[in-house]
Amino acid sequence: MQEKGLLIVLSGPSGVGKGTVRKQIFSQPNNDFVYSISMTTRLPRKGEINGVDYFFKTREEFESLIEQGKLLEYAEFVGNYYGTPVDYVRETLDSGKDVFLEIEVKGARQVREKFPEGLFIFLMPPSLSELKNRIVTRGTETEDLINNRMLSAREEIEMMSLYDYVIENDYVEHACEKVKAIIIAEHCRRQRVEHRYIKVLEAE
Ligand code: 5GP
């Protein structure tokens, strides 16, 4: 029987750099995992492409996906919906490939409930002032939105206890190396692999 892939969830407070770390990881060759492109009702930012960065949906389309049970998880974040397509995730995991989600913390909590055996990695900002600095310099948000995001960030950091690993995003390169190392280690975790070797012993 085909062994299932590993569900990898990278999450953390808004503005910590989850997207940057994820893009950097996927820009490198030889990754054994695939990225699940999310759906959102947010408008595309400059340079973003439908079907590459997100599947951009209207509110009506998104709500219909929720009703049809097509989302593994979803959350409303700063006025927009974001969600993970369930069929893609399940089919890819069933085919034996690892799936990588980069999502905010409310969604990650829902995934934890449905896939407790997943690998949950929390990306942590070096400090709250550094986090604000990053959101401001990104320059895509209005003053009100920045304040909203900072309020959410405090609550989001308190959800760290739901995760298996915490990585401080001091330098993007370091954070990426750590994410990849954790994925490799997770594939060697005894609880995940011992059934293979028990089979080997039984066969002898
Ligand atoms: P942005 O608008 O900056 O692209 O994303 C805002 C937040 O939504 C980020 O924290 C990002 O990780 C999160 N996000 C992106 N896709 C999903 C998703 O499918 N589900 C959830 N719950 N959050 C997502």
**Unreliable stretches:** none
Classify the secondary structure makeup into a structural class: alpha/beta
Q: Please tally the helical runs, counting DSSP H or I stretches of 4 or more residues.
A: 8
Please state the CA-atom Rg, rounded to the nearest Å: 18 Å
The helix content, as a percent range, equals 40-55%
Strand segment count:
9
Bound molecules: guanosine-5'-monophosphate
CATH architecture type of the domain at 7-36 and 98-203: 3-Layer(aba) Sandwich
The main pleated sheet reads as:
5 strands, parallel
Sheet with most strands: strand arrangement: 2-7-1-8-9
CATH class term of the domain at 7-36 and 98-203? Alpha Beta
SSE pattern: EHEEEHEEHEHEHHEHH
Shape: globular
What would the CATH topology of the domain at 7-36 and 98-203 be? Rossmann fold
- What portion of the residues fall into strands of 2 or more residues? 15-25%
Please explain how this structure is put together.
The chain has 8 helices and 9 strands. The protein has helices at residues 18-27, 59-67, 86-94, 105-114, 128-138, 143-157, 172-186, 190-203; strands at residues 7-11, 33-35, 39-40, 55-56, 71-77, 80-85, 98-102, 119-124, 165-168. It has a 5-stranded parallel sheet with strand order 2-7-1-8-9, with helices on both faces. The protein has a 4-stranded mixed sheet with strand order 4-3-6-5. Strand 5 and strand 6 (80-85) form a beta hairpin. Helix 5 (128-138) runs antiparallel to helix 6 (143-157). The longest helix is centred in the last third of the chain and has 15 residues, at 143-157. The two termini are 20 Å apart. The model has no long low-confidence stretch (mean pLDDT 93). The structure holds guanosine-5'-monophosphate. The site of guanosine-5'-monophosphate has 15 residues, from helix 1, strand 5 and strand 6.
